[in-house]
Write a structure and sequence with these properties.
globular, 3-stranded antiparallel sheet, single chain, alpha/beta, 6-stranded parallel sheet
Length: about 300
């Protein structure tokens, strides 16, 4: 029996293109649909990617400006929308991108009713909540990339300072993917040892790593004009974990229903990711200050929701 694993990417700008490229080289999808409201953008990306198939695992590619091209998808990633510009916060994108979602999410839900829907567009937490409401999908099948990239950045800066691979750093950024995100300082460890117990690494160093994490996107946008490669790889990783039913714990933006004492808001907390999407939420111990930070993120996001 021929088994397929279809991925659709809605939005073929820099982020969508970087993700498609990473996925194609990875070889996991058997089918990859590239969808953009500007059909020529999707077609141009498809044609460019087709020309590397002599050097990559074969993947069936298609380009479209219609959401029904998502039909049969296992995972649909949504990157469509206005991107963050220099001097602009993620939250300033709300109105323009909410209107786009009101148009495309119901169409995606009709075309791919059994897919896992992953939101990448900023502000990702607000739009994850909107996508869950508009699609009416079960809780675990709609989530946002959230602070998965922020967490990877935090792990990188800690690892760089301690000269350890970021893969060996256990540390999380939770809450909003934005300016009210917060680090879980109390649980930042390497091999079970708190990072501040390592020689030459203090609480101030840990706080500096967080500031570098928080400001990273602004610096990249200033220097390059946009961010795309790291988030493209995050998308690839999510795809691989769904395909492989990994049961890996990663921070993702999901609508909470009582977890951490919060309801009716989407933000990032540690989640178990597998073939069915988010299979459960893990509640980790937080310090009093971290609990306040989580509530502050939730309050901000609720205040910005219509």
């Amino acid at each position: 029996m021929h088994c397929t694993f279809k991925v659709s990417i809605v939005g073929c700008g820099n982020v969508g293109a970087a993700a498609a490229y990473a996925m194609l080289l990875d070889g996991t999808p058997t089918d990859l649909a590239l969808i953009d409201l500007r059909r020529e953008t999707a077609r141009g990306l498809m044609t460019d990617l087709e020309h590397i198939l002599s050097f990559a695992p074969y993947t069936k590619l298609e380009a479209s400006d219609r959401m029904d091209a998502c039909a049969g998808s296992n995972v649909v990633f949504v990157t469509a929308g206005q991107r963050q510009k220099e001097g602009q916060t993620r939250l300033q994108l709300i109105e323009a991108n909410r209107k786009i979602f009101q148009d495309i999410i119901p169409k995606i839900a009709v075309a791919a009713p059994h897919a896992i829907l992953v939101i990448v567009t900023n502000p990702v937490d607000i739009l994850t909540y909107e996508a869950a409401r508009l699609s009416k999908f079960p809780q675990g099948r709609v989530f946002g990339t959230g602070t998965m990239l922020d967490t990877a950045r935090f792990q990188f800066y800690i690892g760089q300072k301690l000269r350890v691979s970021p893969k060996s750093v256990e540390a999380y950024i939770l809450g909003e993917h934005g300016d009210t995100s917060f680090p879980v300082y109390s649980a930042a460890e390497i091999a079970g040892k708190h990072v501040t117990k390592f020689k030459g690494f203090s609480q101030k160093d840990l706080e500096k790593c967080y500031r570098s994490t928080r400001d990273a996107a602004y610096h990249i946008i200033h220097d390059l004009g946009y961010t795309c490669y790291s988030i493209g790889v995050v998308m690839r990783e999510i795809m691989r974990h769904v395909f492989g039913d990994s049961k890996i714990v990663v921070p993702l933006s999901t609508v909470l229903r009582g977890e951490y004492g919060l309801r009716d808001v989407a933000l990032s907390v540690p989640c178990v990711l597998g073939a069915r999407g988010i299979e459960r939420i893990i509640e980790i111990p937080l310090s009093a200050g971290e609990k306040r930070s989580l509530r502050r993120s939730a309050a901000l996001l609720r205040s910005l929701r219509k």
